[in-house]
Amino acid sequence: MIKKLPEKIVKSQSNACKELVKTLLFEVFINKRPADKVLSYYFRNNKHFGSRDRKIFIEVSFSIFRWWGWIKELLPITLIDQLSRQDINCESIIISNKSLCIILLSSSLLDNRDMIPEDIVKLWARELKFTLPSNSVFKIDMKLEEQQNLIKLVAASLTENKNIKLSILDLIPQWAPQFFPKDSDINKIISFFQRRPPMWLRCQSQNPNKLVSAFRNYNLEAVLNKTVKNAICINKAKVNLYTLYEFQKGQFEIQDLASQAIGLACNPSPGERWWDSCAGAGGKSLQLSFLMNGKGSVVATDIREYKLVDLKKRAKRASVPNIQCSPWDGKALRLRKRYKFDGVLVDAPCSCSGTWRRNPDAKWNITTDQVDEIKDIQLKILQNASTGVKTKGVLVYATCSIFYKENDDTVNMFLSSNNDFALEPFTNPITGIQTDGTMQIYPWEGNCDATFVARFRRKT
Fold first, then answer.
1. N or C, which end of the chain is more exposed by having fewer CB within 10 Å?
2. Is 16 helix (H, G, I), strand (E, B) or coil?
C-alpha cells in the first residue's frame, strides 16, 4: 500500500470516497449507468481533485463492484432493497456512515492493497472500531480463500450475521454460470474475473522493441507479448498514456490482447477490401489497416454514426490513409453493393460478459432477457453483414462475451440457414493452437478479456 499521508489529507480523501460511493451506487444500480461514465462525469464536475485522488477513487470504485457479491452480504437489507428500486432518487437513499465504511474497508482489503493509502484504510477501520488482524492483511496477491476469510472476519465483527456463508458463485449473477461454455471451469473463470486486468497496447510500427524502450524511459513496466508480435502489456500505469509523445504521434493504440486476436484471426492481406461493419471507435479498423500495410481499403461503418468521429481522429493521428467511414443501418446491403468485400468483420454488440474484469459493474446490470434480446440482434447483424462477402471471401464474427448463447449458438444458427458459408480453421494467435473455426479466448490464456471469434469462408 501507499505509505504515510498527512492526517488532514487522509480525512479529506476518506470523506470524498464516501460521497463518491453514494453517487456510484445510485447511478449504477438505479440509473443503470456504466461506472466509468459516472466517474468521468464526476471528475469533469469536480476538477479540484488531483491525479492522486482520482486514482484512489477509480481503484475503490471498481473494487466495490468487483466484490459486490460479497460486500452486499455485510450491509443492511433495507439498503439493498433501496438499490433495487427504480422509483427512488439519490437524495432518498439512506446510507449510514457505518455502511459506507464497511463498503470502503472491505473493497480495499479485498482488492487494493498496493493502490490505496494504508492510512485511509486504517481510518475506516478505526471509525468502525474494527481491529485489523495484522499487517499481513495488506500483502499483495492474496488467495481467494484468504480474501473470503477477511470478509467473514469483517462480518463477524461488524454485522449480526456472525456465520456468514460466502461462495465464489456469489461474485457473479446467479443465472450466469448456466451460460458459460459447456465443460468450462466455472470457478477458474470467476477467479480470473476477480483480478484487476493489466493495460494492453498495440504498437502501430514495425519496431515494437523501440516503443517498449520508450515506455521504460517513462518508468513504465512494459512487456512485449511472446506470441502476439505488436502487443505490449503495461502493468500499473503511472502516467496518463494519452499524454505521451508516442501516443500523440500515433505509435500505439490502447487495445486489449483478446481484441487484437480478433484482427489477427481476420488475417487480411495487403490490397484487399475489408468491411468492419460494427466499427465503433475503430480500434479493429486501425488494426486491419496496419495488418494490410496501409494498402487496399477498410470501410468502417456503425449504426451509431457519432462513434465514427473518434475513428477519423485516430486514423488522422496514426496517418492511416485507407479507412473510409460511413454509417450503416444494419440492414442487408442493396443488390448493387453486395459481394464486394474480400473480408467482413462483424464485431457484434454483446453482453460484454468477457470484459467483467475491466467493467465489473456491468455484471450486476444485465439480465437473462437482455442476453436473449442481444442474441437475436447479433444473428440479424451477422446475416445482413454477410451480404457483403464476395465468393471465396472471409466472414469473421466476434464478441467480447463468454456466453455460449451469443457465441456458439449464434454461429450454429447462422450456418443452419446459410449453406454457402462454412467454418474455416485458423490458429489461435495467443495460444498457437489450431482451432476448428471457432475460438474462445479465456482470461488466463493471455491475462486479458474473454473473447469469442468464428471465421467463415463463403463457398460460392
1. C
2. helix
Identify which of 380, 310, 354, 373 has the alpha carbon closest to the alpha carbon of residue 442.
354
Half-sphere exposure of 22 (CA within 13 A, CB side): 15
* Shared domain check, 249 and 132: no
Q: What is the CATH number of the domain that holds 207?
A: 3.30.70.1170
Q: What is the CATH number of the domain that holds 446?
A: 3.40.50.150
Residue-wise pLDDT tens digits, 285-339: 999 999 999 999 999 999 988 889 999 999 999 999 999 999 999 999 999 999 9
Residue 223 sits in the same domain as residue 349: no
Cell 468464428 found at: 454
Query: Do 154 and 290 lie in a common domain?
Result: no
Quote the CA–CA distance of 320 and 328 in Å, as a whole number.
Answer: 21
Q: What are phi and psi of 401, to 5 degrees?
A: -120, 155
Per-residue pLDDT at 94: 82
219 close to 192: Cβ distance less than 8 angstroms: no
Look at residue 194 and tell me if it is in a domain.
no
Q: Do 152 and 295 lie in a common domain?
A: no
Distance CA 173, CA 247 (A): 38
Complete edge-to-edge strand list for the sheet that includes strand 199-203: 221-224, 231-235, 199-203, 252-254
Distance CA 407, CA 402 (A): 8
pLDDT, tens only, 155-194: 999 988 778 889 999 999 999 999 999 889 999 999 999 9
Q: Domains in the chain: how many in total?
A: 3
The answer to whether residue 140 is domain-embedded is yes
> What are the CA-CA distances from residue 228 to residues 13, 20, 27, 86, 295 (Å)?
41, 39, 38, 45, 22
Among candidate residues 401, 308, 316, 314, the one with its CA nearest the CA of residue 352: 401
Q: What is the mean pLDDT of residues 348-364?
A: 96
Q: Is residue 283 over pLDDT 60? A: yes
